What does this fold into?
Amino acid sequence: MPEFPFTRRRALGTAAAAALAPTVAGFAEARADSRASGDGEDELHVMSFNLRYASAAPPNSWPERRPVMRALLHAEEPHLVGTQEGLYPQLLDIAADLGRHHAWIGTGRKGGSKDEFMAVFYDIRRLAPVAFDHYWLSDEPYLIGSNTWGNAVLRMVTWIRFRDLVTGGEFYHVNTHLDHVNQQARELSADLITSRFAEFDASLPRVVTGDFNVPAHRNPVYDAMLVGGGLVDTWDAAERRSDAYATFHGYRPLVPDGDRIDWILVTPGVRTRYAKINTYERGGQFPSDHLPVQAFLRF
It folds into this structure.
């Protein structure tokens, strides 16, 4: 597959869309088939999901997990999924399983198809990307693969400005995965992410998805995202919630009321009708070592 080593934001137009593959995978075909959802529902169903990178070695190999992942996504039908840890062939599998009404945007942490992605999947009947970009969590955010804060692995952000084809409104989606080892790097990452909100149109809502690798309410990173970023936690703000579990389980028994390290955050004024930590499994097989978190939003 061709590399796509861009370093600056790109606005999307119909003529440019085909040139952006594979970073905007299936976009040209998706635009041709794009239409608003037919159910008239204005709630936006958002999911954040650490996919656990594809491994061929059992137990919990990708061949074992893929059918369960497919069944989960088909059952839930999210409009927007911010993913973490996906490898390029794995993302192609998910795209194939979701079908022609979905497209995705992403690039590898080392650029192109290399390493893990912060890929974003979206339902083309509901959402159309207007602009997007990637940057790296370092002192040199537009240097592909940069790592200056001591992250154990490369970390990055993918953001997209979407137009909602049902409501006609627009919003920003920011998707990330913070380091699993270095607390200082996590704090610097949170500061960078929130500071870059200043480059967005302040009149538009923001939706942030990610694996932050720290528990909600019990780490400075959480405070930085909410206070510094002017965001609210959809789990706390939700009008209704599912049962609570630790969102990382590592294929071990689920922990009720455990640490939520995967979050969906939004700007104040975005209404969270329902928040969910999804415990779907089939025959004891989970689709990932994380539970997906979901929020049903109304702008």
Observations:
- Residues 1-8, 11-22, 27-40 have pLDDT under 50 and may be disordered.
